[in-house]
Amino acid sequence: MADDIMADLPELGPATCHTCSEWGCRDDKGAHDGRCSCTCHFWQWWVEDAQAEIKRLEDAKVIRDLKIGERDRSIEAQQAEIARLRENNEYLHDVIASLRGEVRELEAALPDPPPQHSPVGSKPLTVQPPKEARRD
After folding, report:
1. Measuring CA to CA, which residue among 32, 31, 28 is closest to residue 15?
2. Among 34, 69, 100, 114, which residue has the least CB neighbours within 10 Å?
3. Cβ 34 vs Cβ 27: under 8 Å
4. Among the listed ranges 9-18, 38-47, 95-104, 117-126, which one has the minimum average pLDDT value?
5. Which domain does 11 fall in, by range?
6. pTM reported for the whole predicted model
């Protein structure tokens, strides 16, 4: 059987375990993975694969935590901006109310307006032709 496998992979050559000298460089599906398939190395590979997966998951968690932290900071900044705008809005409403009160006080302090009449008299003004144009 080893010869059949070697015929499929002549350029790779056999992979042997340095601990037990067992030959094997294929996984259970027959694909070459460059690792010895003997029992003494199985747990080592499993641990390495598990450690790599743990590292990948930890990296993903760190990235997720960074994104969550960034989002949380963004939300906090938006909430702070909303609070600031609400304070400004309340302040502006107070200023507007104060100004309206002052306008009412000033309007009340004004004297009554004079009656509307023509300063020249009650007759409407007529346009006179220029003096040179008159020939009497």
Report:
1. 32
2. 114
3. no
4. 9-18
5. 1-37
6. 0.38
